[in-house]
Design brief:
This protein has 6 helices and no strands. With 129 residues, the chain is mainly α. The protein has one domain. The mean pLDDT is 90.
């Protein structure tokens, strides 16, 4: 039996689209910084204990996740992959004793935006009052 799509108000849909746009813009800036190779990227990788030679791989992975998240048909897959990406960021921050809230918050933002704009996801995960 297929899931019936949950109703979507225009406000909910546009809020989800705006949040998704902000999330995608933020991630595009992060990916472009990774490709531009500023000193802060080199310093950040060293601080986290990650070999600097992986910076291009991180940026390519991020671009692939952005693309999947931005396309409505693959947006759930993109959100799942971003959850894994930010899970790695979270454990890296925990490992070096730094606050881990930011990657968790960004991951929650990605899912919230998707939840607001995708009626199929709301039908799959109904929140009840």
């Amino acid at each position: 039996m297929p899931l019936e799509a949950a109703p979507t108000s225009k406000g909910m849909l546009w809020t989800g689209r705006i949040l998704s746009g902000l999330f995608v813009a933020f991630m595009l800036v992060n990916a472009s910084i990774g490709f531009s190779k500023p000193d802060m990227v080199r310093d950040g990788f060293a601080h986290m204990g990650i070999p600097y030679g992986l910076h291009n791989a991180f940026a390519v992975i991020m671009l692939a996740c952005i693309l999947l998240y931005a396309i409505p048909q693959t947006s759930v897959l993109g959100a799942i992959l971003f959850t894994g990406y930010f899970g790695g960021a979270t454990i890296t921050h925990l490992r070096i004793g730094e606050p881990f809230y930011f990657p968790v918050a960004v991951s929650v933002l990605a899912w919230l935006a998707l939840y607001l704009r995708d009626s199929r996801l709301r039908a799959l995960i109904p929140l009840r009052s």
